[in-house]
Specification:
The chain is of the alpha+beta class. It has a domain of about 80 residues. The protein has a 4-stranded mixed sheet, sandwiched between helices. β3 and β4 form a beta hairpin. The radius of gyration is 17 Å and the shape is elongated.
Length: about 120
């Protein structure tokens, strides 16, 4: 049986890295971690970071509970694929979670979403 497909359309923090050689040099002189920590902190305002953390915790919980019975993909809506998926599913509010073709927009009540997933998995 194929796993239940779950796509999470959301704004995702992005980290940029230098070339491999530069990263090695930056790590060896002790500035690499500081640069990446600063990027992580500046990626999102606090409210979006809190929303992303809650969403990430929910995704980890779904993966832990259902294992191979679900396939979860997190897609950054600022990416080309994210724009395509947003148009395809007509999602206008984020995070939008697509469970086997059904779209749930601006999700904040993960319990209701858990019930929908449980009904489809069992």
């Amino acid at each position: 049986m194929a796993p239940l497909r779950i796509e999470v359309l959301t704004y995702a923090p992005t980290e940029f890295f230098h070339c491999l050689h530069c990263e090695v040099v930056m790590q060896s002189v002790g500035v690499g971690q500081a640069v990446h920590r600063e990027q992580r902190q500046a990626a999102f305002p606090p409210d979006l970071q809190a929303q992303y953390d809650a969403l990430a915790n929910w995704v980890r919980g779904v993966s832990a509970r259902y294992g191979d019975r679900v396939a979860v993909r997190v897609i950054d809506v600022a990416s080309l694929e994210g724009v395509y998926r947003s148009i395809r599913y007509r999602a206008r509010k984020y995070p939008a979670i697509v469970v086997d073709g059904s779209v749930y927009e601006a999700v904040s009540d993960f319990a209701a979403l858990d019930r929908a997933i449980e009904a489809r998995v069992s």
